[in-house]
Design a protein that fits this description.
The protein is of the alpha+beta class and 198 residues long. It has seven helices and eight strands. It has one domain: Gcn5-related N-acetyltransferase (GNAT) (Aminopeptidase). Helix 6 crosses helix 7. The relative contact order is 0.14.
Length: 198
């Protein structure tokens, strides 16, 4: 699929704004991934250097199979970058992508920003990228995140037992998925807009 016509979208919610990542975002993003508490429920903690982050940026900014957004907290009226979310490993033929999200600013935890960001990203994937399935991975001990995804309609599809070793703890990895028709049933107005555009 030619991705050149994808909109460089700014997606407005009630509490968050999703917008394209910029090079100026790299310092706060590096601070997020270099914080072991932030990474506890996100990924393996490995401190990164400026050079490693620059290499990541070069790969990410050129990737044709991924769409990345910065998450801004707009509750105060002034946007502040608090995390990222993305759809990665997009299979344009099978119309499948993996969802990932990280709220890196700890002061933004527990305010529903991740829930709204995920909902906006899922809608973007189904409405604008014409995906048929969005899936994700979450550690089995992260009940809060699992509950968030269930609220958005994701269902557990399986468990990879003892598939991750995070900060000295072996974790199960839960696979969850959401199909386009399941999302459409929960969001008929948005699904109707999407259908009308095709």
């Amino acid at each position: 699929m030619d991705t050149s016509d994808q909109p460089t979208t700014r997606i407005h919610g009630a509490t968050v704004l999703l917008r394209a990542l910029e090079r100026e975002d790299l310092p706060p993003l590096r601070s997020f991934v270099n914080d072991p508490e932030v990474m506890r429920f996100s990924n393996t903690f490995r401190p990164i250097s400026d050079e490693q982050q620059e290499a990541w940026w070069e790969r990410t900014s050129r990737a044709a199979d991924a769409t990345w957004f910065g998450i801004e907290d707009i509750r105060s009226g002034r946007g502040k970058l608090v995390g990222t979310c993305c759809l990665v490993d997009v299979d344009w033929v099978s119309r499948v992508a993996e969802l990932r999200i990280r709220i890196g600013a700890k002061g933004a935890w527990g305010h529903g920003l991740g829930t709204e960001a995920c909902g906006l990203l899922v809608a973007f994937g189904f409405e604008h990228l014409n995906l048929g399935r969005i899936w994700l991975r979450v550690f089995g001990s992260n009940g809060r995140a699992i509950h968030l995804y269930e609220k958005l309609g994701f269902v557990t599809e399986g468990t990879l037992r003892r598939a991750a070793f995070i900060q000295g703890v072996t974790e199960d990895v839960v696979i969850m998925g959401l199909l386009r028709e399941e999302w459409a049933a929960r969001n008929p107005e948005a699904a109707g807009r999407s259908k009308a555009r095709r």
